[in-house]
């Protein structure tokens, strides 16, 4: 029962993390945005994907890989959970759940690496006095990506530990009480049979 509850918690954590990682991609915080004095932001897409810098292409590839891994991890996690009727025996479901955990850990690592690489580039340019081009700051998409990556890693670790719990099959100890039962039955039979031996009467002449 505890293993099933742990798998449900792990599944909820990983799905939440995957949704957070996926939500970072369609936001405007990855684009070039300009905000005027009235608070209105104007964002535009990058003109060409091939003309992007190498670190932006690497971050984009890592985030897309994280989203794809999270999708496959959610499918394997759903199959490997004990509360579902698919996946075969408990041992097979435990292996599938462990595989889902590894996939979610890779998903979290890809998202964590992509967000950290982008944040490192932004902070290094921001604090570089010789950098004279436009400087950027850390946006909400990075923090959302870090939070989703952390949830995926935590939930995937719980999925991996579930195979160790399922491998410990409980063993019941049976005590052999055959001899005791036989002895008890014989004792009951012996006690139930009345003593038919007639009592001995001694005459007064028997004593000297």
From TrEMBL:
One molecular function GO term is: structural molecule activity
What keywords does the record list, in alphabetical order?
Answer: Cell junction, Cell membrane, Membrane, Signal, Tight junction, Transmembrane, Transmembrane helix
Compartments reported by the entry = Cell junction, Tight junction; Cell membrane
What residue stretch is flagged as signal peptide?
1-23
Q: Among the entry's GO cellular component annotations, what is one?
A: plasma membrane
**The keyword Transmembrane appears for this protein:** yes
Which residue spans traverse the membrane? Answer: 62-84, 96-119, 139-164
Annotated family: Belongs to the claudin family.
Full protein name = Claudin 10
Gene transcribed to yield this protein: CLDN10
């Amino acid at each position: 029962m505890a293993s099933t509850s742990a798998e449900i918690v792990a599944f909820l954590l990983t799905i939440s993390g995957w949704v957070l990682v996926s939500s970072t991609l369609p936001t405007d915080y990855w684009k070039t945005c300009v905000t005027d004095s009235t608070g209105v932001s104007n964002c535009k897409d990058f003109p060409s994907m091939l003309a992007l810098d190498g670190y932006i292409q690497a971050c984009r590839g890592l985030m897309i890989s994280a989203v794809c891994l999270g999708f496959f991890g959610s499918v394997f996690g759903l199959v490997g959970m004990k509360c579902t009727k698919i996946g075969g025996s408990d041992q097979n479901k435990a292996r599938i759940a462990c595989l889902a955990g590894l996939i979610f850990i890779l998903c979290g690592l890809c998202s964590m690496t992509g967000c950290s690489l982008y944040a490192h580039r932004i902070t290094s340019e921001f604090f570089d006095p010789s950098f004279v081009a436009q400087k950027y700051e850390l946006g909400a998409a990075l923090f959302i990506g870090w939070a989703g990556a952390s949830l995926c890693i935590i939930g995937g670790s719980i999925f991996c530990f579930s195979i160790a719990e399922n491998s410990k099959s409980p063993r019941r100890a049976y005590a052999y009480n055959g001899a005791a039962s036989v002895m008890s039955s014989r004792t009951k039979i012996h006690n139930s049979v009345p003593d038919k031996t007639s009592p001995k009467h001694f005459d007064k002449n028997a004593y000297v």
